Structures are given as C-alpha cells and as structure tokens.
Amino acid sequence: MTGGPLTCQVDGTWLQAGVVSWGEAVSILTSLGPQPHTHVNWILTPELGALGLGILGLPWPLLLAGLFLQGRADPGWGCTLVLRMLPAPATGPALERVGIVGGQEAPENKWPWQVSLRFHFEYWMHVYGGSLIHPQWVLTAAHCVGPKIRSPEFYRVQLGEQHLYYRDQLLAISRIIPHPNYYIVEDGADIALLELEDPVNISSHVHPISLPPASETFPSGTPCWVTGWGNAAPPSFTPESLPPPFPLKQVKVPIVENHLCDAQYHTGLYTGDSVHIVRDDMLCAGKIGHSTCQGDSGGPLVCKVKGAWLQVGVVSWGEGCAYANRPGIYTRLTHYLDWIHHYVPKSSPASAHCFLHRWHHPTFPNPLPLPCGPFYLPPSLMWQMLILLAAVSH
C-alpha cells in the first residue's frame, strides 16, 4: 500500500491529505496539507507544469484539494486510507551488512580483536560482528543492538574464535550503549558500545585493537581489511549462508574517498546530487567483487599504519553485496572518538598511542605485562624481547 492515498471527506468533498510513506507496524503518511504544505507547492512548481501533473497522475481535483487542505486539516477529521493489496516491496537500497565477499578464510589468531555477537534464539546464534577495543569494552554498530531497547541479558560475546560455535566461551554483557543520535543507518551515528560484565584476559589470541588518532585521514586507495562470519557470495553475487565449519573470513578492500563514494551511490537514482547519501561520519571501502555482505555488521575495518593495526571503521550498511558503484559504508571512528572515550578510558589499550600487551611465554609462569607508551611494538619484536629477557634471566 506504499504510495497509496489517505483521503478525508471535508464538507462533502473527498480530499487527498497524504501519501502512504513508512512507519513502524502502521503507516505514517506524507502530508499534502499544512504539515508540511511545501509538498503541494513543489507539485505546482513551474518546472512540472501541466505535463508534470499528468506524469504524476494527480488529477486537478486532488491538486485543488491539497491547496484547500492548507490551513484546513484538523486532527479530529476521520480520514479513509484507500488500500490495494500488493506484493511486499523489495528491500530498499540501504541494507545491513551480513558477509564477506571476494575474500578467503582468515589465518588463525590474525585478528585477535574480532568479536562474534550472539543473540539468544533456540541457541546463542551469531548475528553480528564487533571488535574488542578495551579488556571490558566491545565496539559494534548501533543497528546491531538498536534502536529498540533490549536487555543486555539477550546478548553474549564470543572472543578468540576461528570457527563459530566451536569451543564457545560466551561472555555476559552488563550494558548496551548505542549512540543517542542513531535511528536508521542512512542517517549515520551507527555506532554502539557494549560493556562486558568482567574484563577479559589479554593474550596473544585475544587482545584489543587500537583506535586511530583524530588527525588520521586514511586517503583514497589505502589498503585495509574487513573480517566477519556473515554470508559469503559466489561470483553471481547471490548471498548464501557461510557453510560449516563457519570459518572467520577476511577480505582486502581499498578506501574510497567520500565524495567519489557519494557520487557512485547517486548512480542510477533520482536522488538529487545535493542530497548527501554518504555523510561526514561515514567511510567507504571496497570494490566490485570485494566487500562486506549480510552478517558482518558491527565488525571492524582495520588498516595498518606505520606498522600498527588501527580500526578505522565499523561495518554499517550498503547496497547489495560488492556491486559496482556500491562500496561498503562504514561508521568513521575518528568522528566518534570523543563519544567513545566518554565511556572507554583513554589510557586503555584502545588508545592509538598506548598499546598494552600481555604475552605468554613458557619461561614465565604468568603473563608478562609490557609497559605502555607512545609507540607500538609488532608482535614479532615483542617475542624477541621476551626471548631475550628469558635468556638474561638464566
């Protein structure tokens, strides 16, 4: 019934007051009356003229009715919604991301910050991705946990898992914090924090990813990686469920500059160029045949900068799966650093300038804490330091 008329009988005359638009459970209607009356003015613009009116299929009585309704609509009027049962419309262009396309199985322990977010159905099912940015904090997309309010008890987090559902050790969540500006993915602010009930033990296969400094720009063409357990797609780009044993997948994607990405998303649309589809708090990455698809939502987009892995984005939305002119769209983390650090301590491993690792080595009975400082030590160098310390201790 989308696009159908909402009609009201006023002084014995039927007037069209609105057009069926959208809503939750029930339809919300685009008004042709006083809230806002600008729709009527747009219909009568000189650019449309009589031919435009004919194309729109709006007979003069309805146009006059729209004008008549300006200043006349009353909340107490009883109106009739003219319905015609039609097949359900296809999903719109903005889709939640649900799978890696054009990638391959990730090497074990390569992405130790990767999170599987579970929701309780008949079992704790993987529904979205996420990333560990602090021993007690997980970063994900707001659409994974909102905007409807749900209790944290319905969710669990799984860390350090190469294959889904194998050796599960699910962690409870104490608090869900979606960004307060989030409502739908196309409007941005698609970011959320999950506080774990207890901090996790940091090791070589489970540790946080660093966040970028606010000044980092990540120019177009920068090679980055996105990971997840979502659907995979064959060359025909028809999504299919990831088959057992449900391995973690990875794909290399180039950053696409926002203005170019926005222009690509306007391709094939009536939407005017002045309407920004890709907003300032978003980041694009991907190319035809290489991107995210359904199930990867909330997962991390990471880039290696001067030897350090930094999370630059959160998987948010896009159109299709790795289609031409439709890169994946991510929440840009540099836009939300202040909001993140309102909850997550800056002195944590989440800071790009402070990376605290605790590495296991057979020589040491307990994990060895390494000092925190304005540098990043690659794991290979950390191991060399530990081996050297072990040799000196003898």
User: Can you tell me the CATH topology of the largest domain?
Assistant: Thrombin, subunit H
Assign an overall shape: globular
Rounded to the nearest angstrom, the radius of gyration is 26 Å
Report the helical percentage: 10-25%
State the major sheet.
6 strands, antiparallel, barrel
Which CATH first-tier class of the largest domain would you pick? Mainly Beta
Query: How many individual helices?
Result: 6
Mean pLDDT: 74
CATH architecture title of the largest domain: Beta Barrel
Number of strands: 22
Helix-strand pattern: EEEHHHEEEEEEEEEEEEHEEEEEHEEH
Percent of sequence in beta strands: 25-35%
> Order of strands in the sheet with the most strands?
14-15-16-20-19-18
Description of the structure:
With 394 residues, the protein is of the alpha+beta class. The chain has three domains: 5-81, no CATH class; 92-352, Thrombin, subunit H; 358-393, no CATH class. It is 13% helix and 30% strand. Strands 14-15-16-20-19-18 form a six-stranded antiparallel beta barrel. A hairpin with an 8-residue loop joins strand 21 and strand 22 (368-369). The longest helix has 15 residues, at 379-393. The radius of gyration is 26 Å and the shape is globular. The N and C termini lie far apart (79 Å). Residues 26-38, 44-75, 80-98, 232-240 and 348-384 have low confidence and may be disordered. GO terms for molecular function: serine-type endopeptidase activity. Keywords: Disulfide bond, Glycoprotein, Hydrolase, Protease, Serine protease, Signal. It comes from Marmota marmota marmota (Alpine marmot).
